[in-house]
């Protein structure tokens, strides 16, 4: 009898042990799997039970949670000027988020460890949990100016503007856009159907072209080639003469590189400032081949290429290309071949030149406050790369880029009473397709407050040598510059 009881007791203990192991396995190991399982309706309803924090910029509320009378969904997300800020705020859907709504989700929904003290106080006082508010660096006037100007072009494209001295992002516009409210409803069927429609759209409205898409930079990249050329010999300057043939034979090929439209570049020998003003291809291709692949690649890296950047959304990696041969290097040095840059990277290059050669780390979050308005975190501007170029080289580049706007291809970027620096670009894409139109800029040149990059996809018009970027993209930049400078 005792033996039977012992066996039953052992069996019971073993079952309890297995039960406890299984409970701990489910709660610890598989908890996240069950929490995120689409069949977990409690998680679905819990998403709408907490008042998420606001997303603001320049004193303007961009996103906030609004209380409803629905017993199942206590709060829903509302967006102000949703299409204007869609790629900045992102959306908050029944099962996912994007952009700031995703990257700052733990703060917005109140679950972050940074809010532990606030949650403890609320628990003691009996107040409901509320998320933190995220204030952004976006300048609403600059954002609106960029959006309106780019939209008036009727093309796809992107505009991103930075404060060159801090790295703060002042404008981030990508077109086409979408309405985040359509993806932030509580009806899964409606939301998912709309998401699938947007995702299948060939124009890619969900894509943030400012940070997630790379393009051939075209002639805007010539400022990088010029930077490397000046850094290689400090005696060189705007008035240094270089060879500028009408066509440049490419080594080990039977082809030659022409200037834009096959035109001549001066008399065949020009100053560096003239080469940049007129954006001649042949002298810059020669510079790149003379410098060599490693020197060119090193210069791009000094401007931040290859360094992972999060703003806090992760940016795509820009790439100068591979060391194939001199012919490929010549093309990469004028922004073609395998050379691919994000608009953010090109804006960082302009900002680095504006900031005496130092590239600041770009950022979008200005400060974070709890539900009571008490500060949790504030932006601390930091250098991404010191000495992308020397201050002397930056001054020479600045002088030449001012001349591009005053005397060259970017006269449509001129702002009355302000010295504007810039560089136009036309980037060839698929055969037969219109080129992309680029423009990078900063102003005022003597004390820069804003640096930016504009790309208009397939936006280049046949209006003369390198004036394509100057004709389409430069006026967009001018609108943003004026908004920031209050002109």
From TrEMBL:
Residues 157-482 form the Penicillin-binding protein transpeptidase domain. InterPro entries: Beta-lactam/transpept (IPR050515), Beta-lactam/transpept-like (IPR012338), PBPA_dimer (IPR054120), PCN-bd_Tpept (IPR001460). SUPFAM superfamilies: beta-lactamase/transpeptidase-like. Residues 52-134 form the Penicillin binding protein A dimerisation domain. PANTHER family: PENICILLIN-BINDING PROTEIN 4B, PEPTIDOGLYCAN D,D-TRANSPEPTIDASE. This is D,D-transpeptidase PbpA. It comes from Nonomuraea monospora. The gene is pbpA_1.
